[in-house]
Amino acid sequence: MAKSSSGKTYGMLPWLGLALLLLIADQFTKVLILGYYKLGDATYVTSFFNVVRVHNSGAAFSFLASASGWQRWFFTVIGIAAALFIVWMLRSHAGQKLFSFALACILGGAIGNVIDRVLHGYVVDFLDFHYGSWHFPAFNIADSAITVGAVCLILDELLRVRKS
Length: 164
What we know:
Elements: E1 2-3, E2 9-10, H1 13-36, E3 42-46, E4 49-56, H2 70-93, H3 97-120, E5 123-131, E6 134-135, H4 141-163
């Protein structure tokens, strides 16, 4: 356990709880999409947002999606290694709130996408934003959590550097 400057002790349990909540939200929404949508189905929600069912066998922005299948296990191993490293980091830095929040978000998202790769061989994406001819690749709750975590890691580092 680590101590904050106020002396209050924080464990890593709340951060693991946050990661678990994000993982549950991610998997629940994916189960809904798999249950109610066929591959390629879409529901128009607004002029800039659709709910779709897309399968991504690659990584972010479909990186390596057209590879011969080895990428499934490659990204699974990377996700598991990242999760183990993050848990180790949370043990060491649980008292650093923003840093730990960021790690918990990344942890929940990484495990959510690893589960998809192991169960299905692809990641289920369903959030589809667009404007005019511009179209952002579909993504999911896990991807959102990873992105929020990455932004918070950058913010945490900027704040840390600013203090010193």
